[in-house]
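user: can you give me the structure for this one chain? tokens are fine.
assistant: on it. calling the predictor now.
[tool input]
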Amino acid sequence: MSGGRWIDLSYPFDDRTIYWPTETGFRHWYEQHGRAAGAPYFYAAGKFSAPEHGGTHMDAPLHFSEGGASADRVPLASCIGPACVVDFRDRAAKDPDAALSVADIKRHEARHGPLPAGAIVVALSGWGIYWPEKKRYLGNDRWGEVADLHFPGFSPEAVSFLLRERNVAALAIDTASLDPGRATDFPAHRIWLGAGKPGFENLARLEALPPRGATLYAIPMKIAGGTGAPARVFAALP
């Protein structure tokens, strides 16, 4: 990476981290923080608890596919690859229920060339401008209520197209879900994860990525049996 630069695409995990309305949030606390009586050194140690799905994280295939790979079984080859950033911010700005379409993908390819093998397709909706304002980001900030969520996602047609017609390793997006917020049966999740492929949600600062040229690293916590996991996502630019 001599001469290159890194871009951190992850949100920190703290008391403002956004989770699905039915989930409790992230908790972190110190058990020790300071100098013990008579000790000549500082010492700190803490604990945390969190749901699998929230903040910048991975959806493992097991999340929507019985018998699918759990978080610890998703290969690194599915978490690292050339980032292909498909920008649909113009439509998302006008419609919070916008879904990335096949036409968006083909428009991207017309400008930047075919999606390379092993690509990570990154949907840029621009929704990161609302983080961490939960009501703006999800469309609803009432705990336990999921009937009135509004944010962009992938269309099932686009996901099916990528599976049939392109050799894509993973999907990623700057919203809370691969599916738009209004989805009730989660077709994008069922199609993509059902094919044994992971997804990455709640990515930060995607507008800092070029359409092509970056390598994306989406490294999840290796939770045995996990349906998902917090992830540190970052990109390398030449």
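assistant: here you go. The chain has one domain: 5-23+52-237. The chain is about 15% helix and 25% strand.
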